[in-house]
Fold each of these.
Amino acid sequence: MAPKGLDYELLNENVKKVQYAVRGELYLRASELQKEGKKIIFTNVGNPHALGQKPLTFPRQVVALCQAPFLLDDPNVGLMFPADAIARAKHYLSLTSGGLGAYSDSRGIPGVRKEVADFLLRRDGYPSDPELIFLTDGASKGVMQILSTIIRGPSDGILVPVPQYPLYSAAISLFGGTLVPYYLEETANWGLDVNDLRNAVSQAKSKGITVKAMVIINPGNPTGQCLSEANLSEILRFCYQEGLVLLGDEVYQQNIYQDERPFISSKKVLMDMGPPYSKEVQLVSFHTVSKGYWGECGQRGGYFEMTNIPSKTVDEIYKVASISLSPNVPAQIFMGLMVNPLKPGDISYEQFIRESKGVLESLRRRARIMTDGFNSCRNVVCNFTEGAMYSFPQIRLPPKAIEAAKSAGKVADVFYCLKLLEATGISTVPGSGFGQKEGVFHLRTTILPAEEDMPAIMESFKKFNDEFMEQYEDHKGYSRM
Amino acid sequence: MRRSVIGGAKRSSLFLLNQAHRSLLSPSPPPLHHHLGSSPSSSATALLLLLRRLSSSSASSPPPPNMSNPVTVQSINPKVLQCEYAVRGEIVNLAQRLQEELKANPGSLPFDEILYCNIGNPQSLGQLPITFFREVLALCDHPTILDKAETQGLFSADSIERAWQILDQIPGRATGAYSHSQGIKGLRDTIAAGIEARDGFPANPNDIFLTDGASPAVHMMMQLLISSEKDGILCPIPQYPLYSASIALHGGSLIPYYLDEETGWGLEVSELKKQLEEARSKGISVRALVVINPGNPTGQVLAEENQRDIVEFCKKEGLVLLADEVYQENIYVPEKKFHSFKKVARSMGYGDNDLCLVSFQSVSKGYHGECGKRGGYMEITGFSPEVREQIYKVASVNLCSNISGQILASLVMSPPKVGDESYESYSAEKDGILESLARRAKTLEDAFNSLEGITCNKAEGAMYLFPRIRLPEKAIKAAEAAKTAPDLFYCRHLLNATGVVVVPGSGFGQVRTCFKMLS
């Protein structure tokens, strides 16, 4: 038969190279088992509402009113919605150019971008230009847009932390660039060493790769570590010296579970450093409505802010954004509400604070429960989750287990995670999906299961793990660390 | 957010249009420009040549990096530089500046408001959303109120029922959670049933990928199909510039095929064949054929026989048929009907083994016009499991499309039926919008045809008019002197004189020397 347009052999090779384990083999197997009736606990993705976290009431009230503006004309609307939600709905509708159903400016509704700019000023103490803030259908879309602008071909390298959230590796594959890894040090709380960065760049250079950008995920995913101000200054200085654009994935900035290192944005540190850094270093920062205590993943709302990017480049980024016409308008309203929250005295303020605090305090407790739970298991060592939404325990697999995995044709941590899934219904993502040092294995789970379910889940994990280790250990030692 | 009645606004701006148009034309009648024939449009050829030239030069090593500015226009992805999207291009930037000026200095310009006619964005021009759809969406956004007694008084009973039905299809009723990467299963079931009801042939929910509007789905397909500039995609000229932009962004080659203005923008398979063969002779592997039906910007609705010829052509040549069918509910002439390409292929007896077909649908057009929601889907048929896996994988990197848009797509494909409480009002709203669109299409068509130097084909469907402006020599020379494409020159004058924003035809591709504008 004549070759057809979408024969597998003719597909774009870059597409074939893409891996995204978060919804890969483990997830697909878990979905199969779920269809067969097995109870599955999905901890493969940071998806809080899927695990019982309730949406915040106030934003849902506002957006519902914006969806159905006829409600605002009804005399009984005050019986169902508080006055401040009604006022906010009117406010956001007035900022749109025809309600939720009209394409907005391709960069997002100007009024909402102004609210983001105001938020950034309050957060960092430095003014922000709404013209350099682009709203996107989720932070992921923004990351893809920026990477596709930067990457010209395989000789363009992007510095990416290992372990990393595999959106970065997937996007770099898709756009035909080269991922240049820098390893986070597990024994030093997933810290990074600037010398490692320097080595990575010179090694890349020797292979003919021009490193153009550096990704940091702060707080880290899957690792959870929060970068210190000193760390960030070092990184920014490094980017200045090497002429790299810093891509600051800060989507977990509201998920902080320790007090030694509160969140500090890359932009603030950069501005604090003063010239020449503050005027020269190119920075793109990303944020979202999907994480924090909002967890509104399904809305697909995000933004990026550009600092020190030449205006001609901004024009090109705008041009590409305009091809998709506009980001979805309801999510833009969620973003506005997130950056411009209620104030003391507002009718809904008490409830909002109660709901928000409830989520954050519970997350903090769950981070502790999980870390301690993992550390109580045989051959498992787990750094504390300082931030974000994940636990990334190291599983020290005995040599016999690794052999068994090989015989089964599986990567060792995939083998372990599949067995875990089948025994307990807990669906995780193997560490190989994020990258790790050779011969060191991890898995990523979220800290999102409901607090009341956690003890049972950890119990179930411990039982499986300790039995697994019993089965495969030869009492002579662990897998090579 | 109510605007003045569309008809009224258009009439006054047409008057201004007339005045502006006259001022641009010389007193002597415009010379006739012979435009048709086999010579390809200069702009499309130029695009193709530029793509080839730039992609061959990128084979050599990149310029040395600028140490302190890694992201300048010299060092960014050249494909980004190459792509163009006139719908929101220069004219719109100019319009926005004028709008700011009007705000700062009211009365300083010869018009009171900017009228954006550059884009199919109905609700920004006063079209109201369908009440039933918004009721369901509001309830799904804030399901807490479903338990309240007052809700019965504010919402129709069937919208409440539909909301419950939809929420039951969402795990945990969590509308804020990432869904399955193809979209919520229950909603895909509904859409598949809607497709079957429309076409009379079954649809498989696993063939459906819900996306943030139809545009991301188009991008996904281009990404899959294009590995290098040796991969060509056949596109209609004039075309909606998402296609040219996407092909440029992914580094492929656009192979133009020309629609015939003289025959109501007809599509001839002989033209397809000719362009295909020419491309192949140049070493291009032609992978797919884009057909926009109803057409954008041209508005033509394909005859079924035409569609059958196209299906045969794709099957014979091993091309993927990319059927952009987003305007399937915008048809204004009684003698034409929408037939999906899937229906046509199936009724010819062609199944999954015969043809790779992708159909794109959107919530942005039709009578619903919900552009800002970003809802849509692609239905893919005829693909091997290995290829589907790859499509799924790419979709999964973005996790999922927005849930509200997914819900809306399912409502659009299965609206209220006869007997439902909301059916009467829904029907009245829908008919009102469609009838008004049909009237406006006719009014504008007649108005354009009455203007000096302008001829305009009927808009059988979609949301646009694509009148042909025969610009006199003097105007063309003036444009050249201003280093501007003649139609952009005209459109700029139009904007400055009347506040009406349209897109110059060169943004869509056109045969040389006849200039169009999109309204």
Amino acid sequence: MLALTRGADRLVKGFRTRGKQFNLQSWRYLWPETRKCLSTSGSKFSEWEDKSGGGSYRPQENNPVRRTFNILSDDVKDYLGLRGKPQSSEPSDMPKNTEENNQRSKDAEKVWPSFCDVLVIGGGAVGSSVAYHLKERALRGLNVVVVEEDSTYKRASTVLSVGGIRQQFSVPENIQLSLYGMDFLRKSPELLAVEGMDPPDVQFNPSGYLTLASEAGVEQLKENFTVQIEMGAKVDFLSAQQLKRRFPWLNTNGVEAGVIGLENEGWFDPWNFLFSLRRKAVSLGAEYVTGKVTGLEQHSLDDMITEVTGSSVLQNLNCAEITLPDGEKRNIRFSVCVVAAGAWSGEVGQLIGIGKGTGIMGVPIPVEPRKRYVYCVHAPDGPGLDSPLLIDPNGTYFRREGLGGLYLCGQSPTDEHEPSIENLDVDYEFFESNVWPTLANRVPSFENLKLQSSWAGYYDYNTFDQNGIIGLHPIFTNMFIATGFSGHGIQQAAGVGRAVMESILHGEYQTINLERFGFERVLTNEPLYEQNIV
Amino acid sequence: MIGRLRLGQCMRVSCSLVPRNLSTTSAVGEREKESWKTEPEKEELPKGEWKSFFHYFAPKKGITLDVVHHLQKGFDLRPKAVQKWLKKIKHKRDESDQMFRKDRVAALGFDLAAAHFIVHRGGKVRFKGSEEWTQQNEDEKYDLPGHYNENLVIEAIDASETNILYEGIECLCNLKQLTWLSVANCPHIDDWCIDRICGQYASTLKHLDISNCTKITHRGIAALARLGELKSLHINGLENIRDIQLLCLLLEDVLPEIEIVGIDYMDTSSLQKSTLNEDQ
């Protein structure tokens, strides 16, 4: 029997299987460098030895003395700044399995990753964050493949979001995740910088959030405020008079109080964030595959005896079938799978039967796409530079966009008026009947606004309790779920990525304890609601 | 159905292959349900099992991921890389040096703690009721009391040309009567530092000097509208910020008494070339 030790060892060799002396599959797992050597590309050795520093624009030298002299002279020239700006002259601390190198050597074909350690289904903010955190921690120790259906991210919730980040939640873990998300954004120019390219600029606007409460919701607002202060969020409680004095453009009729974010709240550019995460993950060695997961194979873990029944229903996922854009189907074998498919995670669950079946298997992943509209309006007399992202008691929100009098606004429709999710067409009726009246009531200078443009995007809506589902599935012992954030995924992406990384590499949460977000709460029917303000 | 779900929970607990030590970190505190596990697992040798003498030297846990990570990272000994690494170490050291320290505040109170912090790092403070600035002399010695004194309230801080960082600004928190602040020529002041300054001093700050802080962008300047009491703003050397003249005019809309020094924004001819159209 293989003597398995904890940690990365298990991931390399796969889980224990009954009977076999040594796992033939594991012999076929080779380190990436060796795999590159065996690849069918003609210039395999140049790819392998093309380490950092020398640069591939230099023709390969066979004489070792000459080669050493070239490398040293390049170093000296770098240090003295004499070399100008070549492609990759700066030091890099990562394996050279970058996409640039692959494209540069003309006869190298892109090797299909037919096996990997961690397969991340979904390449949005959460998926890319998981890939980044895993590769950043494990470097060459883990082979990470991210399967993303659409490289242009046309329908992805990440890029269509308004990009707000706030700590004004009622569940303590949400506040912690958001605080870490903010910290990550602040440090992103260092953390996500790739040599030879511009550092990422997430374009954070530190303007704060303002949550208003009517008389019915003041008690809840006060409770939430207490929790937020306890968890370290920097927020302030304002009465109606203070609100009126501070924001003269605000109509405080019907508003009892509000909570304003003093620090670490505002909005940023989610496209830039996603792009930087993905670029950094790729430069660290994660591989992005364009395709859709259309099948998942499982096998039963018969050798695990459970206390109660004596037989086992535990399953292990081991292979995914990917359909490429041109229709071709290929397989990827993996050791651990992370479902971060956003609004379509429920569908991914259906592929293995989560939702069809009896007992635990009868409970689907309760995430489905819900369409939400964002309208861009122009109001010449609107609130000035000091306007935060304002959330009205009935859920309508607006924020300033740029300096030219543009504002982004929207509202979450009630359950009866849920729009259909077939396409991303915008309903202007909704704006006229629901959004504009509330805005004009709350901010009188919005009465003469003009609708400029709009777009729609999907929430990965958790129909159970509208909070994220993070953790292992009870039946599938190697499937992590990280989805269902229902509109606040972009702010929690960094924290969730780190949490999943800790679960995979350490087996436990080390920084933020997200156990309460596990899938088990769906099974035992204990919802974890975010106490919304009315 | 419920019976079956409870079954699932029991089965989950007894599944030993997948490491399930979901520990409870203290950050969440005392909440009702912390863990789905009912009792912790212990992997020990059963009683009576023979242990060799070397068992006592065996590590309790295996090799940690940090060691593996450092082994994999390798050593980059090229001169540029070493330079970069040295800079990074220095920056990390500065960050931990400027972290907020509760014991300093507990001993001195917020005002004196901030005064000690700033003066020690090359800045100047002025207390309410006095005209003199307290700063360190050539021997790096300064004259500030070492005990809490409730009469010493900071009115002005001059942190120009110090190496103050985002973490350092947190040490200057809770100054109830700070009206004058200068962080001119500080290389590390960026939009997040502006966010922190606006959050901490919104109710009292009347003068702010952020000249030559090149990391600030137009978003940081826009956020300055949150300082409701601001009467004077110095932004010399920041002419390259996008739409800076428009921003100055918009700031005047929000803060009517403000006086902005350093940008010539009354000259409207350059407004025509502004990048306003890019926003729309």
Amino acid sequence: MLRVLLLTISVLAVAHAELCKPDAQNAFKVRLSIKTALGDNAYAWDANEEYLFKAMVAFAMRRYSSKSTTQISNVLLCNMTGRVSFWFVVTDSSKNVTTVPGSEVEAAIRMNRNRINSAFLLNDKTLQFLQITSTLSPPVEPSTPVWLIIFGVVLCLIVAGIVFLIVGGIRKHKKKNKEPAERENLEEKGEVNVTVENGIPCEVLDLKAGHINGVFAADDERFTPL
Amino acid sequence: GGFLIPYIIMLIVEGMPLLYLELAVGQRMRQGSIGAWKIISPYLCGVGVASVIVSFFLSMYYNVINAWAFWYLFHSFQDPLPWATCPLNSNRTGYEEECEQTTPTQYFWYRQTLNISEALETSGGVQWEQALCLTLAWLVVYLCILRGTAATGKVVYVTASLPYCVLIIYLIRGLTLHGAVNGLIYMFTPKLEQLSNPKTWISAATQIFFSLGLGFGSLIAFASYNEPSNNCQRHAVVVSLINSTTSIFSSIVTFSITFSIYGFKATFNYESCLNKVILLLMNTFDLEEGSLTADNLSEMKEYLLARHPQEYTQLSPQLKNCSLEAELDTAVQGTGLAFIVYSEAIKNMEVPQLYSVLYFAMLLMLGIGSMLGNTAAILTPLTDTKALAARFPKEVIAGSVCFINCVIGLIFTTKAGNYWFDIFNDYAATLSLLLIVLVETIAVCYIYGIRRFEKDLHTMIGHKPNLYWKIMWAFASPLLIVSLFVFYLTDYILTGTLQYQAWDATQGQLVTKDYPGYALAVIGLLVASSTLCIPLGALLTFVRKRLKRDDVSTV
């Protein structure tokens, strides 16, 4: 009796070792970066945490296939390193000594990734399933891009400014055309004394400041010296 | 570090004497650039025309920078900043491939802003977002120049003073950044190899010309409104000293901001490079977290090489040697890199939206200020010609100039637009400005005669200029410009055909390519159209005089 028991235990152990080893079929590597994620609040990775991990994987398998046949003992961990990284497989208790296909495990973990992450206080980057790519959440995008809104506002302001200035310019122009006529009327009445020189009002003359004839200025060498 | 010395030398040898020269010419001749050179010698009427053409080219391409600044400004109102993270790829399993190869800021610049093509030849369609920003930039310029030069002066007060406030804010922020000291040390250590490269001197000279406005004809035009008895020597010295101190101050500030932000970015990149290497080693060899740090990295690398030689050698191509020097050395050249460097540094600060808005608003102010000067330089001769000014009001002339420039500027918003922009940036103004300034100096010193010029200055300000100025005008400045020319041409001849940097989307970095034939033709046209004005003008005047003489003799 004892011998049979010992034999079955050793067979099981050997079977386990064969099922769970690096790069085995349907095996996945997990890597945790607890210190990076939690800093001073980091917990140590021990046997209890491993138990929790097995429980979470079993939970994920149960939720995915919705048959409650996966037990914690079905999840095998091996090759634990100091990095905290290890390999795991999920065995199928209904069929002897086989592992659940990798695609099922992957789908189950994908579906419950959030729950698994939060159980360990980690996220997709610090709890990595190396062969399972995570679906990244897209950034929130409003329906109209923000920059177009701001562009529209600035554009309206600038166009309003241009229109305002142009209209102001046209009005000033019209006023100027009216003013000479008004001035003549006032002069007839002798009310406005505008000093006039040669028929041109002096103010206008002042605006057109005298131009120095550059040719004469530069060409003073042409005069014969005395 | 190498740029400060040529900059200061160029300022003393070229900037101040030439500023004095142009102010004196304008004040004495009392006319704009075209008229003033005609007075000095009728054969020099081409110089003024060349200045106007250079200003025209400049205004064509410069506003694109403002369009980019608008783009970045409008995108700064988001959280997180769009250039902080990579966008996701189509099936949401990772980031965009092109963005993975390079940094998110470069991806934002090359792909989402420019949507740049592989080479100059493949010019795609016009990017409507950039075209919109360019139109907006031209509308802003039109708004400011609408009312003529008098109103523009008031706008320039705002556009010139606001950047100083922002610069000071940035100086304080920049100096308090982590790693700023590295950048500042780098800035003050001169690099002798850089000093021997003529390109540094040429770009220093161009910077001086641009910042003081030499060779554009605007100084002569402004000085012509001064009274003849204005002590222009004192004014020139005072103005150029103030200008140079302000220039030096703002360049020190800009350099220290740039370099402290640079040092911050370089340190940040260096540390993330180190972290990546540490993570890679930890993951491959399953080492405990925290066992690898920056300090023991080199020893651990040797230890791992000894323990697991095979895996280590397999891994070694991915293990980059992180070096702070290499990060600091990545060249700060070109307008695109200015956008990339600053946006990368800003995204790592706290409250990045505020700093981003401040920075791009300042960039806009500076850009619009330069554009106003340029457009004024084009508009003044146009509004002075009686034919146009009588028929059209100045609003219409200004509007048509802006409209034409905007339509031409749409070239720079196509997919290959940035490559054309680089062509214009490198070749439109540099050679021509040098030549114009050289001709100006030689004309005043040797054709007009330096004794005559001395006498004119004596009548204007009451005393003759001292020996320093005369030596500068007669010998130092022309000699320096001629040597720059020689360097430039020998550089071109030695390297053979001209090359440009194209963005390779598959590798995520810049590669060097040769310019195609028609691009070289455009470059030649750019340089020739402004420089050939000078000899052409001389030829035209010669022919005209000949014809007049014939007319007179026949009578």
